[in-house]
Amino acid sequence: MHATLKNVTERIIERSRQSRADYLARIDAAAAEGPGRGVLSCGNLAHGFAACGAGDKTALSGTTTPNIAIVSSYNDMLSAHQPLETFPALIKRAAHEAGAVAQYAGGVPAMCDGVTQGQPGMELSLFSRDVIAMATAVALSHNMFDAAICLGVCDKIVPGLVIGALAFGHLPMVFAPAGPMPSGLPNKEKARVREEYAAGKCGRDELLRAESESYHSAGTCTFYGTANSNQMLMEFMGLQLPGGSFVNPNTALRDALTEEAVRSVLRITRSGEAFTPIGHIVDEKAIVNGIVGLLATGGSTNHTIHLIAMAAAAGVVIDWDDFAELSSAVPLLARVYPNGSADVNHFHAAGGLGFCIGTLLEAGLLHEDVTTILGDGLSRFCQEPTLEDGAVGWKPAQATSLDTNILRPADAPFDDEGGIRLVQGNLGRSVVKISAVPQEQRVIEAAARVFPSQQAFVDAFNAGEFKTDMVAVIAGQGASANGMPELHKLTPFLRVLQDSGLKVALLTDGRMSGASGQVLAAIHLTPDTVQGGLIARVRDGDTVVIDADRGVLELQVDEATLASREPMVVDPALNRHGMGRELFEVFRRNAGASESGASVFGPVA
């Protein structure tokens, strides 16, 4: 085992000792009570299966037939979730064939950051994760179930499902994805059109045509943002069938994998081969494996927030120091947009996650001795699914990459480090993703230009105000201020400035999304504007240093001057109405810091 992996894991285990023990005691006590239906009154139970067929009613009247809860993020507006429409029928059929019952327990909301980028609705995005966690708990609260299958794909949905599932950590659970859409317009071409539109070189018609050719059918978007990083995490953490993350929707193999998820979860129920609750799968080593997977594949910066919240739900305490230390040791194995020009379909074809897990295990950079939905050992995830006579079979994952421009082994990586770095100084602590940032752009010392919003920056860009190197400071974007929206709308404008020869960077207490690209961006700044962070005292012309090589984040203004300034105040009445934002004031008031997961659920108990 690599020394860094060992040291970080031991530190997390020690840090989490009491909270993890308390969590396990709670879920083990719940498991000891046995199947939930056994404690329900006759009236409770009659309500619970009133709509079932006669056979299912008979089965559910006792406590020996397993009952699987289906929790789904299905809606038919969003491409990633639309394929989930057919999954409940597949699951119910497979459950019946295996002598079990499945009930659709409840749905969770699923919003798309791609639709809400730069729009007021984006201010609900991060908080939707915690709403999804609560909705998952509501779905499972009827105490009718012996296991669950969670259907989800995108940005906040999978983290929310995991957090909610871990509140029911005494139940076995399996996650099942929908898969990515087939490849459309190449990502490099899409990015080119976006930058030309930002520079005024093409019109809206051309931009919409390019976007529509890119996002063109059912399935997840094919770039390697948060949605596809979610699927990677579920495999690396042993919660999802191996090799299934990037199988396209509406294919025979996709449907067969969904049915196989039923058989997999039944094998780990109390009446199956080995009772394995999800709370025992998601432990310190599984979390570390997830972080390693994120770093090795160049995944989404959003998971420097989400993984912290997910870990906390299992009584595990992690922080950005853990990410940064692991990043220094974990090699970058993949080049997938925005960290390259390929998409996840190309990545999957080149060898995919099975190849990644295999080469990282060989390098001693993953914990093999973990519990998964398939039993003990992560090496079981070095497999690929096949379809044989309509049934899922398995073969060893690709031993060598089929395209080294996309995927490489751990001993010949694209980079010796994972690409997520911690920068810190008098401005606070912030995350920087440098895997796609050119070496010459990783350090900047320049004057600040301070803006209260994305739109204010865009207005200044359109007015031709940017003539010199600068650090764009977008303050007041933390969870307590406005829900911590993604500021991805800024990317093409910053790229245009950078491509013109200027050195530019972004500093914000907001997020920059899983599609963070080639512009240096210090994001998730903590403490944020509302929490008394120094970002509230930055003014135009101040010198800001972001040095991703040395891990430095400094405002070069003397203390007396800073003390004389009134901090920026986020108006509590500003932009708090419309698009449902008024309903989320309780979330803004109770949101934690970004390094604690920006969650409303508070620190680990």
From TrEMBL:
The lineage of its organism: Bacteria, Pseudomonadati, Pseudomonadota, Gammaproteobacteria, Chromatiales. GO terms for biological process: D-gluconate metabolic process; Entner-Doudoroff pathway through 6-phosphogluconate. This is Phosphogluconate dehydratase. Pathway: Carbohydrate metabolism; Entner-Doudoroff pathway. Catalyzes the dehydration of 6-phospho-D-gluconate to 2-dehydro-3-deoxy-6-phospho-D-gluconate. Its EC number is 4.2.1.12. GO terms for cellular component: cytosol. Gene3D superfamilies: IlvD/EDD C-terminal domain-like.
